[in-house]
Q: What sequence folds into this?
């Protein structure tokens, strides 16, 4: 089995218009280039909703992990 190293992370820059990060080597923002102000507002609203959903999912996984850990500890102590 061979170890394949991960490529180095890309340098990122923060867009002044949408406040999201895109690769530094691109000339335009990969998120908001070509969007009108109304389209940008809708895009940012969707992006925020997705970020919140991901955060909630992470919280559910952490809670499930804590519950499983607690059950394992209780089963070990019960023996």
A:
């Amino acid at each position: 089995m061979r170890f394949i190293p991960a490529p180095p992370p890309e340098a990122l820059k923060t867009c002044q218009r949408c406040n999201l990060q895109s690769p530094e080597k691109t000339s335009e923002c990969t998120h908001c280039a070509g969007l009108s102000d109304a389209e940008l507002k809708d895009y940012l609203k969707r992006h925020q909703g997705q970020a919140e959903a991901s955060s909630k999912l992470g919280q559910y996984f952490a809670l499930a992990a804590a519950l499983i850990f607690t059950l394992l500890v209780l089963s070990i102590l019960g023996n």
Q: What stands out?
A: The mean pLDDT is 92.
